[in-house]
Amino acid sequence: MHHHYIDRFAYQDSPIHRLDARAKILAVLVYSTVLISLPRYVIPSAWYAVLPFTMLVWAGVPLRFVAKHTLLVSPFVVCLVAFAPVFDRSLVRLHGTWTVAGGWVAAASILVRFVLGMAALIALASTTRFPDLLRGLRRLGVPHILVLQLQFLYRYLFLLLDQAMHIRQARTARDAGKGPLAWRWRGGAGQIGMLLVRTLEQADRTHMAMLARGYDGTIQMVRPGRWRQHDWAFLLATIVYVTVLRWW
Hints:
With 248 residues, the chain is mainly α.
């Protein structure tokens, strides 16, 4: 498994891709803040979908990809949405005419905000290379230790996944996945122990390799980013857009 699985669309070329990472981070942050600040019983209008889906379509990111990754994390939100009508039985008036249970309105509001927020985050991640994203976070003042942890997670999580897949493939080759259930449970426990040992060994080898290359804890970028006029235009347009939506 390669790290391009996460940001495979981030290596494309489009006007959105060419924006500075800081401009996109700030734009998505402002958008998400306004989205969260909406009152509890307010369902975001369709106009809130303009920013994230314009970024996705303009950058050439397939909407099927967005839907797939939104569904992957949806179970957590679906549980929250399912219990909202149970715990909130207050009555609210919609458009001054209809009276409905507040729990259903809150559930719809949570679901719509979740979809819009995920679309904005996927648009950010799919149009910004992860090293550029980390550099943007660092230059925006995010603590260095947090950026460093994200960098290591991004780089070496896939090494751990590869080790786990190799161990799983080796076990499947030995019993074809049809061994007795008790043996398979014991084998699974052994796999976890073996994965821990290999992870420690890999961490030691990685540490020695980084020291040999002169790593000093800083992120070295081949292409230093520059804040240009179209970055200002994008950020200011986003601020005006969400301001009009929020207080229209």
